[in-house]
C-alpha cells in the first residue's frame, strides 16, 4: 500500500511550466518552457493546447528528447492559449504541468536583436548627409586617384595622334546589370573627350537594348562637347548575342580597324583574355574594368590599366564630381572603415573571451 502511494506521488510530480509570447517575432508564435529534474528518465514529452480551461485540450506536439522548450508556431494573434505538458518514462507519467495564465501572441514592431544594425545605419546616414553637404560646398572633395580613369584622356589623345579610332567594349552584360550601367558612365566620358579631339568611337554591343543605351550615351557626350555633327550612330551597333561569336567579331574589328585605344569596361567571362591579348597584339593602349573576380587576373596581366571592382562604380562620381555621388562615395568609405574597426574589436574580444552578452550579440551580427 505504501509502495503504491509512493508511486502515485512520484507520477504526479508537478513541473514548472511557463508560456509567453515569442519575443522579437512577427507574431503567430508562443514559446513554452518547463523544467526537468535531473533524476527523471524521459522517453517522451507531450504538449497540449487549449483556448478554454473548461474545454478539453488538444495534443499539438510529441518530443522524444528531454527538451525544455518548444515554440508553438501558427497560433492566432491576440487570442489566449493555455498549455499542458506531460512527461513520460515509457508509459509511466513522470510529471505534469499546466499554465495558469493565458499566453497571447502579438507582433513586435522592432527586433531588439538587430539593434546593432540600426546603430550602424544611423552612423552611415550621418556620414552620408555630412559628406553630401560638404561636397555641395567643395566640389574638390578628395577621392583617391584612380589610375585607369586618369588615363582615359591619355588613351583618347594617343589614339587621335595616331589617326585611329577608339574601341569601347562593354562586355556581355545586360542593361539590368550594374557593371553595364557603370560602363555607360565611363563611355560618356570617353565620347566627350573623343568629340573634343575629333576622334571616332566604335562600340560593338552584345545586347540590342545595351546598344540603344550606348547610342544615346555617346550622342549625349558629343552634344555636351559641342560637336554633335561628329556623332556617327553607325559606329555603335549590335554584333551578336553569342559569347565567343562576339569575341571573334570584336577581335576581327581590332585587326581591321587597328584602334589606338581599347577600353574593356563591363562584365566579362571566359572571353576576357582573348579580347585583351588581341588588343595587346595590335599595340593599343588598353584600360580594362570589371567586377568579375575570376576575370580580374587576366585583365591585370594583359592590359595597361585596370579598374578593380568598386572602382568601376566610383567612376561616375570621380568623373562627374556630382555632389550627391561624391558624398555617397565618401560616406561608404568611412562606414567601411567603421565596420573594419568593429570586426577587429569583435575578433579581439572573442579571442580573449571578454565582453558581456549585449556586446557579443552586437558583434555577432557582423
From TrEMBL:
Signal peptide: none
The keyword Lipid biosynthesis is annotated on this UniProt entry: no
Domain DUF6754: 106-354
Residue spans crossing the bilayer: 115-133, 338-360
One Pfam family from the record: DUF6754
Xref: Gene3D superfamilies: Immunoglobulins
Keyword hit for Plastid: no
Superkingdom of origin: Bacteria
Keywords of this entry: Membrane, Transmembrane, Transmembrane helix
Name this polypeptide is given: DUF6754 domain-containing protein
Source species: candidate division WOR-3 bacterium
